[in-house]
């Protein structure tokens, strides 16, 4: 990558009450210079139409699934959707794939077996359907999945992790693959309020072994992971403060090797409201410039 990318990761785009509200927000992000919009594809059998609606309603900003679960979607349908988006909007749609979590797949983990092997099978099926590796990235955290993202996709989209992990991911995937971590932030200068907002977000993620195991690999302790996280963990995973301070926290990921940071602004769990003011303020410090 020759130019860093500043992107947006926001559940609002799936949860927005209307197509027009989602498109209006996407248009503003495009005008502010953000490169790409990431959001979850949910857990239905089909990737939501919202991804295509945003592509159709904007001119140049990229749109990516962050992520599409390989347990809930069929490779042939996903490949066809991706190819259709590529024909209509060349270079603007990126398929992010992930193994999700046992509790979200079947509740008790009975079906959630060998997620790495499942991903290999899914990628084999995408290859058979003719989907080029450069049209997809993997939600990779651990060494094996990072290696797979290097060998069989355009790169990696880690989620809920630290700048230290970004450095390890860059070393694992090499210099020529896209590294686009999601980074949640709180634009709030008061420490108590900022960490309280952050903990509304971390409480759920710290119950999921995929994330906690990754953090333990990085040296975080059970005490750090207890409840909704220690102050030290919150401060490492979620930059908070003024827009300038948050931007400085995001810079740590670029210095660690990220090509693209997908910024998720936390606003107390309200996915029906788009935090436009925060993205406007951050744009002033991050100076996003689209370069997909």
From TrEMBL:
It holds the Pfam family Bac_luciferase. GO terms for cellular component: cytosol. InterPro entries: Bact_Lucif_Oxidored (IPR050766), Lucif-like_OxRdatse_MSMEG_4141 (IPR019922), Luciferase-like_dom (IPR011251), Luciferase-like_sf (IPR036661). It comes from the Bacteria. Gene3D superfamilies: Luciferase-like domain (3.20.20.30). GO terms for molecular function: oxidoreductase activity, acting on paired donors, with incorporation or reduction of molecular oxygen. Residues 19-128 form the Luciferase-like domain. PANTHER family: CONSERVED PROTEIN, LUCIFERASE-LIKE MONOOXYGENASE. This is Putative F420-dependent oxidoreductase.
